[in-house]
Fold this protein.
Amino acid sequence: MKKVPFTVQRDSGDVPAVVWLPEQAAERRPLVLIGHGGAMHKEAPFVARLASWLADGPGYATLAIDLPVHGERTPEDEKGLSPLERRNRLGVEAWRERNASNTDQAVADWRAAIDAVQELDSAVHGPVGYAGVSMGTRFGIPLAAAEPRITAAVFGLFGIAAGDTESAFAAAARQISIPVLYLLQWDDELFPREDGLTLFDLLGTRDKTMHANPGGHLRLPRAEIDGMLEFLRDRLGGGGASPGTS
Amino acid sequence: MKKVPFTVQRDSGDVPAVVWLPEQAAERRPLVLIGHGGAMHKEAPFVARLASWLADGPGYATLAIDLPVHGERTPEDEKGLSPLERRNRLGVEAWRERNASNTDQAVADWRAAIDAVQELDSAVHGPVGYAGVSMGTRFGIPLAAAEPRITAAVFGLFGIAAGDTESAFAAAARQISIPVLYLLQWDDELFPREDGLTLFDLLGTRDKTMHANPGGHLRLPRAEIDGMLEFLRDRLGGGGASPGTS
């Protein structure tokens, strides 16, 4: 697997990005976008681990970017703080509002990054999958609603409050028409269970499956991470040869 | 695969049973109990198909019985009627009440059948798994709560009304401490979504996963049936050799 950092140049500012490519040459391979969580970044362990499995297993390319106010785009006065310190400094509500206000920017950054990444790989990219929970779902649902190249997605660990079902985010959820694997933590302390169930209910696609497990926000079982990879592989199809057959 | 019909003789009346055994000899193999659904019987297509996969795949034995007032135990005046006709004749509420009133009988019949089936197989049976949705869960949860030989179970397509959380059935749900795969149909017309979520919530085990899919009671996706088999195989472990390796 090769890791290639690159920069997406946009009028609104540079977007630091990284693409992981399988060693094997291929004419065409699926591309998976991994949306990092709140206060994380494009090379967080969760992202890098998924990228490594996708490259070494089905032979997919994986793309991640630093989302607005995250990673290399972290505001000066928040640099060096831990995720918890950053959230506590702003307060959870203000933290969420700032992320929500960056949705259009995040979607545009992602779309530009999909355009740009093709230059770095000799293989044609297609189809495109998306996997991102928590903040990865906050941005991923509007992205998947807007971007027809995305043909399958993993979402979860997020929610819509009962009073928020007329929001732009809820409208995007209703527009989702691709296959979705949806992950819910039954005892999520950040997003109430009811809000997570409401979001699953709103997703417009008929091809959706929810996997719910006991435990808090950060306790997603390892089996579900394997399940994400299996889902993407099932829905995106063959890439290059897998290590076992090459 | 060999299909062996047999009868469990009990003071309360004979219990017609059938066991499916792999062709391969083994010293020891897991046993799976399949609890049939309402108005179905021990050799309903769903039961027979699971039995066939379990025998030919991981090499498990499978046991099914005609539950009270079902199959060969159907009351004379209901014989020859379709499942829907039977339910409509009694009315859904009376139908459910009659099944609920047969819970102790069903549990005792199952336990006697587990004892009896061992006589028919040269292999020792263990561990024991259970799979049954809808009425298969009505009887399966009290059975699994009472029967320590059962070490993993698939439940679902059932529920507990908010006002019923102090019932004997709810108490049994709280006693479940084994790994559970729980299936929920998001648009189940027979068991309201909320009741299905309540039952999942009440299950006492921490090792539980819910898979929820759009569609009505009878629309369980094929992928979830595969998932049941995968779950049982993961949790019960090796039986005889699989056909691919023998």
User: Anything to note?
Assistant: Chain B touches chain A through 14 residues (CB under 8 Å). Residues 2-236 of chain B form a domain with the Rossmann fold fold (CATH 3.40.50.1820). Residues 103-117 of chain B form the longest helix (15 residues). Confidence is low (pLDDT under 50) at residues 240-246 of chain B.
